[in-house]
Write a structure and sequence with these properties.
Blueprint: E1 15-17, E2 28-33, H1 44-56, E3 65-69, H2 73-85, E4 88-94, H3 99-107, E5 111-115, H4 120-133, E6 138-139, H5 147-163, E7 170-174, H6 179-191, E8 196-202, E9 230-234, H7 236-250, H8 256-269, E10 276-281
Helix pairs in contact: 1-2, 1-5, 2-3, 5-6, 7-8
Pathway: Amino-acid biosynthesis; L-cysteine biosynthesis; L-cysteine from L-serine: step 2/2
GO molecular function, one term: cysteine synthase activity
Catalytic activity: O-acetyl-L-serine + hydrogen sulfide = L-cysteine + acetate
Length: 298
């Protein structure tokens, strides 16, 4: 009798139809619940992929120290994957990350190093590069590692095609490392070039965990703009309002970037008819409770 290991149950997350938030014009709005992954986010997929592929190439071996800059979800996923496979994990992140994220990483046994809020993710990435150059660990580098989008090309994309029986017309995703949108776009466009890929970035001044507008020098090397048909700017309040709507109207407790994804999907729904619009719910909302974002509105 074969019993699965934790690695075996990453992916194959539910795709659910929204019932109370209407998309109008005979559109169907579907949410991909990535919070159902073992460590609670879409990042479980690339975290496992990057470690598995590096192992297969002989670049890393159990017992090695891995170093990665993260704003949260990738760090939690990597900490889980390192625990499964026997690696030491050092994670570098902005101090502004929610306490639940930091505690989750530590719970899996990872070592945390924080940089100032002002230094942000760019500062975390710079420090990771410096530590690796000093020989203090080996890099996975989610921002430049093709094994990041490969995970979504091999799993997320095929799941969406199968779950919608090929009827998907629009795919809406926040853009952070851009691994999700790059891998899913490549797969879906191979099945049907007419599928529209919609990427989300924050408005100037917005700070939405998991969605980034990178300075040119820090643009992820895995990103290929030709794979995104349309880019929408999402506001801070817009993302937070729709995050609360997901919880209160659909029973989906998710993070702020998922609220941004819903907002983007609803914008698309205003422009099209008879569409099947899929958006990514990146993670679970319980890792944001300490931020007060779910506090009753005055």
């Amino acid at each position: 009798m074969h019993f699965p290991t934790l690695e075996d149950v990453v992916g194959n997350t539910p795709l659910v139809r929204l019932k109370r938030i209407a998309a109008g014009r005979n559109n169907t709005l579907l949410a991909k619940l990535e919070g159902n992954n073992p460590a609670g986010s879409v990042k479980d997929r690339p975290a496992l992929s990057m470690i598995q592929q590096a192992e297969a190439r002989g670049e890393i071996h159990p017992g090695d120290t891995l170093v990665e800059a993260t704003s949260g979800n990738t760090g939690i996923a990597l900490a889980m994957a390192a625990a499964i496979k026997g690696y030491r994990m050092t994670l570098i992140m902005p101090e502004s990350a929610s306490s639940e994220r930091k505690q989750a990483m530590a719970a899996y046994g990872a070592k945390l190093i924080t940089v100032s809020k002002d230094a942000g993710m760019e500062g975390a990435r710079d420090l990771a590069d410096t530590m690796i150059a000093r020989g203090e660990g080996k890099a996975l580098d989610q921002f430049a590692n093709p094994d990041n989008p490969l995970a979504h090309f091999r799993t997320t994309g095929p799941e969406l095609w199968r779950q919608t029986e090929g009827s998907i017309t629009h795919f809406v995703s926040s853009m952070g490392t851009t691994g999700t949108i790059m891998g899913v776009s490549k797969y879906l466009k191979q099945q049907n070039p007419a599928v529209q890929i919609v990427g989300l970035q924050p408005e100037d001044g917005a700070s939405i965990a998991g969605i980034r507008r990178w300075p040119e020098a820090y643009l992820p090397r895995i990103f290929d703009a030709s794979r995104v048909d349309q880019t929408l700017d999402i506001g801070q309040q817009e993302a937070e309002v729709h995050m609360r709507r997901l919880a209160r109207e659909e029973g989906i407790l998710a993070g702020v970037s998922s609220g941004g994804s819903l907002a983007g999907a609803l914008r698309i729904a205003e422009q099209v008819e008879n569409a099947v619009i899929v958006f990514i719910v990146c993670d679970r909302g319980d890792r944001y409770l300490s931020t007060g974002l779910y506090a009753p509105e005055a």
